[in-house]
TrEMBL record:
<dbReference type="InterPro" id="IPR005151">
    <property type="entry name" value="Tail-specific_protease"/>
</dbReference>
<dbReference type="GO" id="GO:0006508">
    <property type="term" value="P:proteolysis"/>
</dbReference>
<feature type="signal peptide">
    <location>
        <begin position="1"/>
        <end position="33"/>
    </location>
</feature>
<dbReference type="InterPro" id="IPR029045">
    <property type="entry name" value="ClpP/crotonase-like_dom_sf"/>
</dbReference>
<protein>
    <submittedName>
        <fullName>Peptidase S41 family protein</fullName>
    </submittedName>
</protein>
<keyword id="KW-0732">Signal</keyword>
<dbReference type="Pfam" id="PF03572">
    <property type="entry name" value="Peptidase_S41"/>
</dbReference>
<dbReference type="Pfam" id="PF11918">
    <property type="entry name" value="Peptidase_S41_N"/>
</dbReference>
<feature type="domain" description="Tail specific protease">
    <location>
        <begin position="123"/>
        <end position="317"/>
    </location>
</feature>
<dbReference type="GO" id="GO:0008236">
    <property type="term" value="F:serine-type peptidase activity"/>
</dbReference>
Length: 333
């Protein structure tokens, strides 16, 4: 037989409710605490903005644009754009606000946890499994003597990527026509484009490829094609480069340089317009910034592709670039 103490039942119910509430708060409060820990305080936001402004004014290649960036940030702060955001939300908001002033697609604020993830993916451990190293395939059309090289990237100045590029060019060594497809390739290290370009000139005929300079020409750099590349060169082959709106940075540089040198026909759509190289800077509060510092232009000019993209010689609808290249090849047997 079960006896129930009716005199103490309300107290037992009250105690059980308190226990349930305490268990609920144990489960919930740590989450609120974690959220609070990730929120960047207004004081720290202000400090981050000061660092961003300082670095842009000191190093961005175009002083007038740097000043516009610097002027925008306090206005956005005053409007409450950065209040009560965690560091990853803050990174996204800062990037959007800066690009609303001038769309430099290289200028980017990162939260460190996402940046660390990206770096781990690019590390030797992250690349341990078999990788294309930026070059997915080479197809040979013997009927038209055409080599088609697909490179979705990105390009990294590593033994693996140089080796993959050299391997692709070795397969193309006897072709009269070469199509290099960099559609969707976000870029990477410009050395890979310069390496590919070198195959299309005879030894001893090195070309002034691109020119880079920092703010007030404090530092400048001439980029030339390489005097040595492994394997056979193709100085007489016709070169076609396929691009689209997602072709960016170093791959744009490759297309732009070869077009300017009148060594390639560029086919597709206007590219991304990312023409300022840079470096990664720490900002504090678990944030980093990719700071564009070096404008890249054609030799002996002030003209590059920053903000406007590479303009194709032959404009096509998306998906029709390769067919357009083959039509040009058919017209030049």
């Amino acid at each position: 037989m079960i006896f129930i103490d009716t005199m103490h039942t309300p107290k037992l119910i009250q105690a059980s409710r308190l226990l349930a509430f305490s268990m609920l708060t144990i489960g919930v409060f740590p989450q609120f605490a974690a959220a609070a820990d990730n929120t960047v305080s207004d004081q720290n936001v202000h400090a981050v903005l000061d660092v961003i402004r300082e670095k842009l004014l000191a190093s961005y290649p175009f002083p007038e644009i740097a000043q516009r960036y610097a002027d925008q940030l306090p206005l956005a702060e005053k409007a409450g754009h950065y209040h009560q955001l965690d560091h990853c939300e803050l990174a996204k908001r800062l990037t959007a606000d800066l690009r609303s002033v001038h769309k430099d697609v290289h200028l980017h604020i990162f939260c460190d946890e996402l940046l660390q993830k990206k770096m781990q993916e690019k590390s030797p451990a992250g690349e341990a499994k078999m990788s294309s190293q930026g070059f997915e395939s080479v197809q040979l059309d013997l009927d038209t003597s055409t080599a088609y090289i697909r490179s979705k990237g990105s390009w990294k100045a590593s033994d693996g990527t140089f080796g993959a590029a050299a391997g692709a060019m070795a397969l193309a060594a006897n072709a009269k026509n070469v199509i290099i497809d960099v559609r969707g390739n976000p870029g990477g290290d410009g050395e890979i484009g310069r390496f590919l370009a070198s195959y299309f000139y005879q030894t001893g005929d090195e070309q002034y490829y691109l020119y880079g300079y920092t703010k007030n020409n404090a530092y400048s750099q001439q980029e030339w094609t390489y005097a040595f590349v492994p394997g056979r060169r193709l100085p007489d082959a016709r070169l076609y480069i396929l691009v689209d709106k997602d072709t960016g940075s170093a791959t744009e540089g490759f297309a732009y340089a070869m077009q300017h040198l009148k060594r390639a026909t560029v086919i597709g759509q206007v590219t991304a317009g990312a023409g300022i190289a840079g470096e990664l800077e720490k900002l504090g509060s678990k944030l980093s910034m990719f700071l564009p510092t070096k404008m890249i232009v054609a030799p002996n000019t002030n003209e590059g592709w920053e903000g406007k993209g590479v303009q194709p010689d032959v404009v096509t609808a998306p998906g029709e670039e390769r067919a357009a290249a083959m039509a040009l090849i058919a017209g030049h047997p």
